[in-house]
Amino acid sequence: MKHSKLYILKKYLNIPFQILKLIALTSVLCVVVGSFVNLTARPTILPPATQTLQPATVLISTMPTYTSTDTATHTATRPTSTRFPTYTSTSTSTNTPTNTLTPTATITPTTMTPSQTDTPTETSTPVQTLTPLPTPTVTPTHFPDVAVFFLKNISQTHAITLEVGTQSLVQPTPAPVLRAVLADNVPDYTQANDHFWFERPYDIPHVRWGSWYYPYGTNNNGDYLWHKGIDIQNPMDTPVIAVGNGKIIFADRDSIQVLGPYGNFYGRAVVIQHTNTWKGQTIYSLYGHVSKVLVKEGDTIETGQIIALTGQAGVALGPHLHLEVRIGENIYSNTQNPDLWVLPDPGHGMIAGRVVDRDNYFVPQQLITLHHTPSKKFWRQTRTYPDKGYKLDPELGETFTFADVPVGNYIIRTKLDGVAYEMPVAVQNRKVSFVLIDGRKLPPDKITPSPTP
């Protein structure tokens, strides 16, 4: 009986061991089978005819929406995600049409996410720099050397002293940019007259303003090519009209004649040689990326005549018109800022300006911000032109502009060599207001007197 109980006990104790043994054998079998499958498996390759490439997705969102009234009161919002921003402009004025704009670049950009706050953010790519100059670290509270002038019947204003108070410009410190061009022999802008000779290349009610995020002389913080014109977006096949009288000297694909940095840059373009000359030089206007040309070489053209249809030929990611103004010779290097040639809409003007440092060098790629008064709320921003590749207006010598600004009072801000400059500017109807930011003229209270021997 004792041996029977022992046998039964061993029998029941042996069951778990048998189970564990079975699990171990099963695991070994799975490993062997898995290894065999891996050795015999081959990747499946689709034949070329069955492979499918997914098209790139371009996210298009809305640019700042602002409401403009006769008192120049605006509100603005910027999208949270966009590659090619668009904007909607609504005005109570009967002279300003309702616009919907989607400016596009002329090169495939990297994806960016613009955002707007009262203090704009800046992204800067480090480049070669000169030995930094010693700079003051105190923000000035007075700037008596503000130069603000109105072109066309210019009347020089007296020196302006602006109380900055405690609200100074706050910006991230950008990487310094090489300053290599002296601001010598620049024109006297106080003697300049505006030259708004051209009309808009679109009729009302189409979009008539250029992109605020990709204006002339900028590259949108390195996302695009340096811009030699302005981009105005409208739907495909929107009629494009001549900005002035002249003769067609080109109306075809630019693969047969290089008009830009390389062939087929504009895809299809029209070039007008205008009847009037300026300071003895011929003036040309170029209309790029059009879907169809409606004129031929040798045709005589009148202002407002339809010459082409809006398209996205060449280096373009959406339907828009690339407008250039060329002076002297019809070549890519002879462009000038079209905003200084196209007449602003009624109730609007423009701001032009120049930035030089304390050693009288032009300051390239300098961030300039535009603010409403009296709130000093941020509205728009731009950058100064690069040192090379751009020709300044012979009468103004500008290095930045703000186009299509409603009539009213504004503040220009920038931070140069550690000094925050804040200056007022008044925009008048269909005129240019010029602002000089001169690092050689520091406020008197920031100049350190020489030690007495």
Notes on the structure:
With 453 residues, the protein is mostly beta strands. The protein has a domain at 147-192 and 345-442: Immunoglobulin-like (Sandwich). 9% of the residues lie in helices and 26% in strands. It contains one helix and 21 strands. The strands form five sheets. Strands 5, 7, 8, 9, 11, 13 and 14 form a seven-stranded antiparallel beta sheet that branches. Strands 4-21-15-18 form a four-stranded mixed beta sheet, with no helix packed on it. It is extended, with a radius of gyration of 32 Å. Mean pLDDT is 73; it is low at 39-173.
Helix content: under 10%
Low-confidence stretches: 39-173
Instruction: Please compute the radius of gyration using only Cα atoms.
Output: 32 Å
Order of helices and strands: HEEEEEEEEEEEEEEEEEEEEE
List keywords for this structure.
single chain; 453 residues; mainly beta; Immunoglobulin-like; 4-stranded mixed β-sheet; 1 helix; 21 strands; 9% helix; 26% strand
Kindly summarize this structure in a few lines.
This protein is mainly β and 453 residues long. Helices cover 9% and strands 26% of the residues. The longest helix has 39 residues, at 2-40.
Describe the SSE topology.
Elements: H1 2-40, E1 66-68, E2 87-91, E3 99-101, E4 147-150, E5 230-232, E6 239-241, E7 246-253, E8 268-278, E9 281-288, E10 292-293, E11 300-301, E12 306-309, E13 321-327, E14 335-336, E15 348-356, E16 367-372, E17 378-383, E18 400-406, E19 408-416, E20 419-427, E21 432-438
Parallel strand pairs: 1-2, 15-21
Antiparallel strand pairs: 2-3, 4-21, 5-13, 6-12, 7-8, 7-11, 8-9, 9-13, 10-12, 13-14, 15-18, 16-17, 16-19, 19-20
